[in-house]
Amino acid sequence: MNAIDIHSNDELRDLYRELILDHARNPRHFRKLDNATHTAEGINPLCGDKLRLYVCLDEDSNITDASFEGSGCAISVASASLLTDMIIGLTIEQALDCFAAVTQRLTGQAIEQEQDIGVDLGKIKALDGVRDFPSRVKCATLAWHALNSAVRGQTTPVSTE
Amino acid sequence: MSQLQKNDAPAIAECRQDFPALHQDVNAHSIVYLDSAASAQQPTSVIEAVANYQGHDHANVHRGVHTLSHRATDAYEGARDRIQSFINAPSRNEIILTSGTTESINLVAQSFCRPRLKAGEKVLITHLEHHSNIVPWQLLCEQSGAKLVVVPINSSGEVDVDAFDQLLTDDVRMISVAHVSNALGTINPVSDIVNKAKSRGIPVMIDGAQAVPHMQVDVQALDCDFYAFSAHKMFGPTGTGVLFGREALLDAMPPYQGGGDMILEVSFDGTIYNELPYKFEAGTPNISGVIGFGAAVDYLQSVGLSHIAEHEEKLLAYMTRELEKIDGIRLIGTAARKASVQSFLVDDIHPHDLGTILDHQGVAIRTGHHCAMPVMDFFGVPGTARASLALYNNRDDVDRLVEAVGKARQIFA
């Protein structure tokens, strides 16, 4: 019984790593961006996660600022926080490459042969624990889908359902 | 343990053996199922009734002259008789078999209310309704120009009776209320509501989905006009449920859907509708589901609703007491009269995170808005964790819940 408990706690600890809990408790760039050029809402009806992502692009399609607001579970908030940390300074193309890489990684499709996208996923890898929790993948990818929707100029909220 | 045996009547404690799904490990822990308000597990007798029909008696109902069709029809109509007796309906013609509570409510909104409702008139519901008792009325109001009036609730999650009295004006044409709230567990004063409505001649529909597994329901004693519930909340299969309606009202209503089985004679000049209850049962019904429904009624009656209610009342009190002892807990839904359900939040842990951590310890609860977003808005929360009890739960289940919540607090500490 003890062995089982330790095993199962390991999986949970892998999901709720310190970095994730830190970003969930103290989300970075957690505010409305008044000068945003692009914005989109992400909704996960299953658990009620509701985030709005803001992106500010310059004339050369560089992401000069990004932020988000809303409410959600620890995984979706931490993921949004990590996203905003990561994409500031990237070009749109690089950010969309990240979107593809992150969603593939979290759905377990491309862990072994990680594509060379010229951007280090770095801290995003702390979300790897969700791969053992299929029902939580949607939480982890919500902000990324919102990013994709925002920079592609979609106006209707993106839903993970 | 000795206390468990003292508090759980032997007959009830043994019921757990009847449910095969409760005898398995989930994530390397024996399962603790506290999500019966979403869907209850099925006893062997229900599973076997469905399998027996599918394996031996399957044919279409009300049609063939052959033996299997007779058997299927007898089993299907036998279930209707048992459901009639279960809720003490005066006539089997008043038992309309539907796909579930949701369809039953939509049927009443469209077939009973829509032809008689005028723009500006009102439909009354309460703030604690499930979406299935909100959206059909919103659709009806959009179609008719009628107004949806919502009776407020108080901070305990009880319907504000004074407000109800004030809102019960002469232009109200329909009232629809939950018997028991799925998100909060509140037992609404449905008898009082019906009595007040009757004095003004206003018809009342009761959404009984969360009531029938927990208490004896007698539609004649309630004196309501319509009563709806689903099989899968009361240990039967999904995809089937009931609308009880007064025969005089059902008789006067147009059919809800057209198709086979609901007609006596069809020609291109016109169609003569079938008699009750078949007028409202277009198309081949969910025969196996209804047969399982009948077996679920038998099961509930064999255990006895009074025993079940007594057991669950004690267990809910125990669960509430034990949850209250947890530091950082916030109970949502603290009505004086409740059944089966306790919603809660712990610290600032999002319910979805709590649900994942509990599931990892074999404890199944519901997390989220429980299809009652207005209730969540009222309490200012995005969702809750909800533990719901059924006759097969016991104190061990509650202890495992409390222990699992403790682990979640450790992870988020």
Write the layout of secondary structure elements.
The complex is a heterodimer of chains A (161) and B (413).
Chain A: H1 2-15, H2 18-25, E1 38-44, E2 49-57, E3 63-71, H3 74-87, H4 92-106, H5 137-151, E4 158-159
Parallel strand pairs in A: 1-4
Antiparallel strand pairs in A: 1-2, 2-3
Chain B: H1 2-7, H2 10-15, E1 25-26, E2 29-30, E3 32-33, H3 44-57, H4 67-86, E4 95-98, H5 101-113, E5 122-126, H6 135-144, E6 147-151, H7 161-167, E7 172-178, H8 190-199, E8 204-207, H9 219-222, E9 226-230, E10 241-245, H10 247-252, E11 263-267, E12 270-273, H11 287-303, H12 305-324, E13 329-332, E14 341-346, H13 351-359, E15 363-364, E16 366-368, H14 373-379, E17 384-388, H15 395-411
Parallel strand pairs in B: 3-15, 5-6, 5-7, 7-8, 8-9
Antiparallel strand pairs in B: 1-2, 4-10, 9-10, 11-12, 13-14, 14-17, 16-17
Written account of the structure:
Chain A has 161 residues and is of the alpha+beta class. Chain A has one domain: Sufe protein. Chain: A (Alpha-Beta Complex), CATH 3.90.1010. Chain A has helices at residues 2-15, 18-25, 74-87, 92-106, 137-151; strands at 38-44, 49-57, 63-71, 158-159. In chain A, helix 2 crosses helix 3. Chain A is globular, with a radius of gyration of 16 Å. The relative contact order of chain A is 0.20. By secondary structure, chain B is α/β, with parallel strands linked by helices. Chain B folds into 2 domains: 2-36 and 304-411, Aspartate Aminotransferase, domain 1 (Alpha-Beta Complex), CATH 3.90.1150.10; 47-302, Type I PLP-dependent aspartate aminotransferase-like (Major domain) (Aspartate Aminotransferase, domain 2, 3-Layer(aba) Sandwich), CATH 3.40.640.10. Chain B is built from 15 helices and 17 strands. Chain B has helices spanning 2-7, 10-15, 44-57, 67-86, 101-113, 135-144, 161-167, 190-199, 219-222, 247-252, 287-303, 305-324, 351-359, 373-379, 395-411, and strands at residues 25-26, 29-30, 32-33, 95-98, 122-126, 147-151, 172-178, 204-207, 226-230, 241-245, 263-267, 270-273, 329-332, 341-346, 363-364, 366-368, 384-388. In chain B, the strands form 5 sheets. Chain B has a 7-stranded mixed β-sheet with strand order 4-10-9-8-7-5-6, with helices on both faces. Chain B has a 4-stranded antiparallel β-sheet with strand order 13-14-17-16, with helices on one face. Chain B has a two-stranded antiparallel sheet with strand order 1-2. In chain B, helix 13 crosses helix 15. The two termini of chain B are 31 Å apart. Classes of the chains: A alpha+beta (161), B alpha/beta (413). The A-B interface holds A 4, 7-9, 11-13, 15-16, 21, 46-50, 71-75, 133, 135-136, 139 and B 27-29, 349-353, 355-357, 360-361, 367-369, 376, 382-383, 407, 411-412.
